[in-house]
Amino acid sequence: MIRFLIGKLPSFALVALVSSVIAFVLPRLAPGDAAVELAGPDATPEIVAGIRAELGLDQPLWQQYLLWIGGVFRGDLGRSYILNRPVTELIGSRLESTVELALLATVIMIAVGLLLGVLGGSPRSRGARSVVDGFNTVFLAIPPFLTGLLLILFLGLALPLLPVSGEIALLDDPELGIQYLILPAVALALPQAAVVARLLQTSMLTARGEDFVDLARSKGARPGRVTRRHVLRNSVGTVVVVIGLRIGDLLGGAIVVEAIFARNGLGTLAVSSVQSRDYLVVQALILGAVLVAVVMQLLSEIVLAALDPRVRLGG
């Protein structure tokens, strides 16, 4: 396992480096100028030029990148151009809301995805499989923002069971906080759960046609044991990796979902920072999201290697 991890570190470092360059360049490709936003529409060119010099935006891009990435390694993400607050402080103040949303959405995604995937891949009635196929088809076609709007219409307005906007921190009031969290977490999780369910179902149906399953049946193994010990065990590996990828996608979907449900998380911070050309905040958010996705991918591959010796041995 140690050799497997060492082999993964170079690719992890390369992705982190490329991601930092992309995170730096991407916000600067958007129209507009942070100095103009800060100076206001009526500012003279001399004032704008002075602000650019004060912020260091008049330096060559490669120098700006080196200064920024050097600060990242020291744990200093800089100060927001617009709000004049440390970027780490801004992110820290919004982090709890997004972490709560992402964690609950991840739990729902894994639970629903695995349950429906096993149900669809088991030798059950056609009715159960049709229900699973219908769920997968619908939520693979519906993006998270549309899922959120439908949940607001049905469970928030038509049947006012849960609040549809705002938030209360779980640490402050767990009972009320979870009520504000359920709808956005479900909206974020269901499209990703459909991906997990479809892949697990397909993998299980493929595994049922393999020779080792026929051999187990010929030995008199019960259907439940065949599913657990042979079919599911040989199908879950790929799903583990996909779950790691889906968790990264959850962070991207959280931007839209937080806006729909008026949650004050990293998603709304990202939107406001892009609109105001607050480069340092946008850079930090992009880099953080990519690194979280890469770490989750690495963890999923570690879990896969632990489940399947062929992976960690290079087979």
Automatic annotation (TrEMBL):
Entry GO CC: plasma membrane
Any Pfam family the entry gives: BPD_transp_1
Location in the cell: Cell membrane
Primary residence: membrane
Residue intervals passing through the bilayer: 12-30, 101-122, 134-158, 178-200, 235-261, 281-307
Signal sequence coordinates: none
UniProt record, GO biological process: transmembrane transport
Keywords, comma-separated and alphabetical: Cell membrane, Membrane, Transmembrane, Transmembrane helix, Transport
Keyword Cell membrane in annotation: yes
Membrane topology designation: Multi-pass membrane protein
Domain ABC transmembrane type-1: 95-300
Superkingdom of source: Bacteria
Family the entry assigns: Belongs to the binding-protein-dependent transport system permease family.
The protein's name in its UniProt record: Peptide/nickel transport system permease protein
Organism: Pseudonocardia alni
